[in-house]
Amino acid sequence: MTLDVITNLIILSASLLGFLYGAITILIRKNPLYLKMVVLALACMMISRGYILLQHLVKGAEPEVFHVGMLGLLGCFLFLFSANFGMIDGLADDGSREYMKYRVISWLAPLAIIVPFIVCNDFSAPDSRLISYSVVMFFIALASRYHFKHLIFPDVDYGVVRAIRGYNAVALLLCCSTTLLIISDLNDWQSLYLGAGIGMSLWCLILIPILKKEATKWTKI
């Protein structure tokens, strides 16, 4: 069993457990749509790793072109981005000049995601793979911006962002770990690939429990 298979099996197991916990949580009682979107993000991660694992087991390698595995990864961070941008950001940020510095500082997160991806890439991978991963990285960068923004934003009016800062910290770490996984995959750095995969697995396991605990504070605000 190769490190690729082991890594994806670990991530698949963790995202499956995280998704099942989240699915049971939203089925048992009424929960905010925000939490449901994060559960769907984990479902996408599960599908992504499941497909790649299946390809390794059946064909011995992951396809070089854009495939279901990459689409699932893209979907995961699209859900995370949409949840923060579409449902939370407007409650905390009214667009006033008073908070301009926080909007500017929040762009440091995407830079911290994109710059290592470019600098560490030797561009030896097939063009189709580079382009596919670049698309995925775009959505990881978008998601990271709002996770970081909601960590530093002074949520003075509603307290909605302040209540889920723990979740945003974990989600930001998931963005970073996934970036490392992609970089290591493009450069065939097996040890980093395994380490990044273990990190992703940990964040997938604790993402929903932390959000579930923190989201209950919304009813008390």
Brief descriptors of the model:
single chain, 221 residues, mainly alpha
Explain what the structure shows.
The chain is mainly alpha-helical and 221 residues long. Helices cover 79% and strands 0% of the residues. The protein is built from 9 helices and no strands.
- Fraction of residues in helix: over 70%
Spatial gap, N to C terminus: 50 Å
What gross morphology would you assign?
A: globular
Strand segment count: 0
User: Uncertain spans, ≥5 residues at pLDDT below 50?
Assistant: none
For the residues shown, what is the average pLDDT? 89
Helix and strand pattern: HHHHHHHHH
Portion of residues in beta strands equals under 5%
Which class of secondary structure composition applies to the elements? mainly alpha
- Provide the gyration radius in Å: 17 Å
- Biggest sheet: strands, sense, closure? none
Helix segment tally? 9
Task: Chart the SSEs and their pairings.
Blueprint: H1 3-28, H2 33-59, H3 68-92, H4 100-105, H5 108-119, H6 127-152, H7 160-163, H8 165-187, H9 190-215
Helix pairs in contact: 1-2, 1-9, 2-3, 2-9, 3-6, 5-6, 6-8, 8-9
